[in-house]
Amino acid sequence: MRAFARAGLLFTAPWALGCYSTSAVPQGALPQRGLSRSVVLIASDGDKVKLDPNSRVRLLRRDGLYTPWVSASDLYVDSAGVIVRDGGRSEGLAWAEVRGAEVENLDGGATAVVVVGVAVLIAAVVVVTLSGKGGQGPSLGGSGTARSLDGAARLADAAGRVSEAASGAAEPNEPPATASSFGDDLGPGRARPGAEPIFDRGARRRASVRVTGAVDAARSLAERGQVQAGAVGALRLWDFVEVGGGGRVMGDAEGPPGAYRAVAFGRLGVHGELDARRRLALPFSVDLGAGRLGAYARLNWGLRVRVYDEVSVGLYPFNPSFDRAESRRRPWSFPSCVETSFAF
Hints:
alpha+beta; eight-stranded antiparallel β-barrel; 4 helices
């Protein structure tokens, strides 16, 4: 059990090593009314910047000071200015006092690459352990496994330090001075009459958790074209982490024609958005499960393209798949997969 706990910590630790990007936007780019979903702003250098409830914002005041960083989900706006709630009190800043702002977002693509690099190493250690002793059942309790996981943990920690150093070197210089408070103290209360949250309740909920579902079909180009079909349900947390599970039906290329078997699995992965408009994303996940005939594992990587609203199509080429069924002489295959998914 301790080995399973270590493996879980290894898979979740890299998400704390997120890479962030910061962009400056002019005052006129900031929304002055409530929004029901994320919005794309035009930065001072012409790049596109996503603003959603997970973004952090600080304003550049007319006196040259920056306000403290605040979550975009805590901001209220009206025609007079912008307001932030701090506990039971509110602070406001008139639009005439705002010269610009900086918006900070998780760099989903770069963070996903860090996660992939660390998690592939860890998954390789776990899968090799699962396939360790011929036809014997899987075991994660031995001292050899513990040593392997400890080694993977040290490598993951080293990768995290390298990632932190690299992201720190790439960050822009801090401004010369930051204000001790956001703006004028408006006293207790929700905000000024008529002020509304910059993101409504639905947008804030979707930024925290989304329910996702997907169906997929895959085929191995070798072994007489093994065919697979699956369905997955998951929760997407903070528009990045995905946790869920599903089932898959697979045709056994080494069995008699028409022979199929089913497996159930859990999934742990990430969804790294690559652009401000959320059109492209880099998905990476690990499926671990079992069927009546043996253990099952698969690494999923590819590209998701959002084609309409929250419906996406995913392409996953040559995903390493381990299937230790009794009828299979070769447990490894590399199926390519097409996926249709949705999130709400």
